Amino acid sequence: MKKLIYFAVVAFLVSCGQATPNEPAVSSATTVVDGSTVTEAKLTITGMTCAAGCGGKIQKELQALDGVQATNLDFVEEREENVVTVNFDPQKVTEQRMQEVVNTIADGAYHVVKSEVITHKAS
Question: What is the CATH number of domain 2-120?
Fold first, then answer.
C-alpha cells in the first residue's frame, strides 16, 4: 500500500513539471470597456497538467508580483491551453513582466501563448 501511495505522489509531481512544446508568439490586444477601475490580463497558458500543482504555482508566482491584486484560474483537465485571469495595477506591473514570470516557472514548463488586457472603466 505504501508503494502505491508513493508511486501516485511521484507520478503527480512528475506530470506537473513536464514541459510541452511552446509557441514563441504572444498576441496582445487592449480593450477599453466603459470609464477606469479594473485592469485585467487574460493569460492563455500551455503546459499545465493539473489545477492544484501547476495552476496553483502559476497563481502564487503571479500574486507575488507587486501590483497584482487577484488571480483566477480557468482550468479544464486535458485541455491544451488554460487561462489565468489577473487583476492588476498597470502602474506597478506590466503584461510583459507577468508573461516573463509564467514562462520561467519550472524551467520553462509553462508558456503564455496569448494574452489580452482589458481595462474596465467606471461610468
Answer: 3.30.70.100
